[in-house]
Amino acid sequence: MALPFAQLVLPSVVLLIPLYLYIKYRRSKNSLFPADWPILGVLPFIAANRHCFHDTITSILAATNLNFRAYGPPGTNMRFFLTCDPDNVRHIFTKNFANYPKGDEFASVFGLLEGTIFTADGEAWRQQRARIHHVLTRPRLLGSTSRGCRDKVARGLIPLLSRMALAGTPFDIEDMLGRLVFDMTVMLVFGEDPCCLSTSKPPMPVATAMDALMEVAFFRHAVPTLCWKVMRRLRIGPERSVDAAEAVLRSFVAGEIRRRMAAGQQTDGEVAAVDILSHYIDDPDFFDDAGREPTDFLLKTFINFMVALRDPVGAALPWVLYNLATHPRVVSGVREELVPVVSRASSAAGMVVFEPEELKDLVYLRAALFESLRLFPSGPIERKAVIADDVLPSGHKVHAGETVLVPVYSMGRMESVWGGDCREYRPERWLSEDGARLRFVPSYKFLSFNTGPRSCLGKNIAMAQMMSVAAAVAWNFDVEVAEGHAVEQKLSVVLQMKNGLMVKVKKTGECV
C-alpha cells in the first residue's frame, strides 16, 4: 500500500534540514567569522564557541578592525553591533549618552534588578545615582569599610592561609576569596558579619543564588527574548533555577532589613551611619503605610547593592592572585614597594596586615591590579540600546532598535589599543618612565569601572579592598597554581572562574 505524500515528504524534510545545517557548519567551522545560519542566525555559532566565547569574539574583532555586526533569527530583534574602538566607546558612553540607554530589554534580562540603578534610565537613574553617591562617599561609612576589610584579612584570611600553608595541600582559593568578599559586602551593606569565611562552613546559598542569576542573565543575552521567556514559564533549561534563586535573595535581604528594624536605630547624638542600610531604614518612602514592611523596590535596591559591591571584587581577586602566582617577577616588585610600609604596618605571629590607607599611594601595586582588570574585567561585556540612528566615529552606522555590545574583555586584548604585547600581563605599562607615578589612561580605553555618566560609584571601595587583600597575600605567602589545574572562564555576565582556582601556599618567612 502506497504511503500518503505527506508521510513521505515530511520525514525527508526533517532529516534534510539538520543535514544542511551540519554541512554548512562543517564548511564554516574553521572560519573566523560567525556563520549566518538560515533562520537561526548566529545562535549556532554562539553555542559552538561557548567554551571560549570571549576569546572567539576577541579574534573576530581583531580581524575586523574592532567592529562587526551579528544577527539572530529574523523577527527576534537580535541585531547587534559589536565594537571595542575607544573613540566609539567615548561617543556612546559620554558624548551621545542620551541616545544609548540600557533599555527595556536589558532591564528584563536582569528581572530581579529591574528598576534599580543598574537597569534604570532617565530621571529614575539620576535620582538613584545621586542618593547612592551621597551614601558611598560618607566619611564614617568609608572608615568603617576600611576597618572591616582590615579585620577580616587579619582575623580571617591570614589565619586560614596559614593553616593551608601548614597542611601543604591544594585548595580552592577562589572559594575562600568569595567567602571573604561576601562577608565584607554584607558588613558594608547591612552592618553584620555573616562569618562565611571558614572552611567548615557549607556553600553560601545567597552567594550561590547571586551567581545563578548572573549565569542566567548571560544566557538571556545570547538567545531571543521569546525563547528565554517561554523557558522561564515552563521552568526548563537555565531558567529552572531562577525562581529559587530570587526567593533566596529576597528572603535574605528582607530578613536583614527586619532585623535592623527590630533592633532600632541609635539616636544618642550621631546616627550610626556605618553601613548602607542606615541611610534607608528611616525613610518612609521605602516602607508600607504602616512602616512595617519594606517595599519591593527597597528589596531590589539592596539586592542591587549586594551584586554591585560583591561581584566585581569577588570576580577580580582570583584573577589578580592567578596573575601574581604565574608572574613571580611582579610579586617581587609588589614586595619591594611594600618594604617601607611594612615597618609601619601591624603584625601578628609573623604575618603582616596592611591598612587600606597605607596602600593608597602605592603605584606598582595599583598597576598590578589595573593590569589584571585589563585582561580579566569583572564585567566582560557592556550593553547599550540604540534610540535613534547614529553614525559612530569609526564611520559605522547604527540604527534605532539595534543593540550595541562593547566586549570589554576583547578591548583589553586589542593590539591597536594596547600595543603588540597586549596579551601579556605587564603592570609596567601603567607606569611613567621613572616608575614613580601612574600613567593617565582614559576610562573609555580601560572600561573595568565603566566610563562617562555611569562610571562606577564603588570604584574607590573596590580598589581599597582589592589592594588590602592582594598586599597581605603577596607579602606573607608564595602562591602556586596546583599542577594540572585548568583555569577556565565561567559563562556569566561576571567573569568568574569555572572550576575555581586550586593553589598551594607557603609562608614567605623572612622579610624582603
From TrEMBL:
MF-aspect GO terms: heme binding; iron ion binding; monooxygenase activity; oxidoreductase activity, acting on paired donors, with incorporation or reduction of molecular oxygen
Pfam families hit by this protein: p450
Name of this protein: Cytochrome P450
InterPro entries noted in UniProt: Cyt_P450, Cyt_P450_CS, Cyt_P450_E_grp-I, Cyt_P450_sf
Gene3D superfamilies: Cytochrome P450
Signal sequence extent: none
Gene source species: Panicum hallii var. hallii
Homology family: Belongs to the cytochrome P450 family.
Record-listed heme binding positions: C456
Cofactor(s) of this protein: heme
Keywords in alphabetical order: Heme, Iron, Metal-binding, Monooxygenase, Oxidoreductase
UniProt GO BP: lipid metabolic process
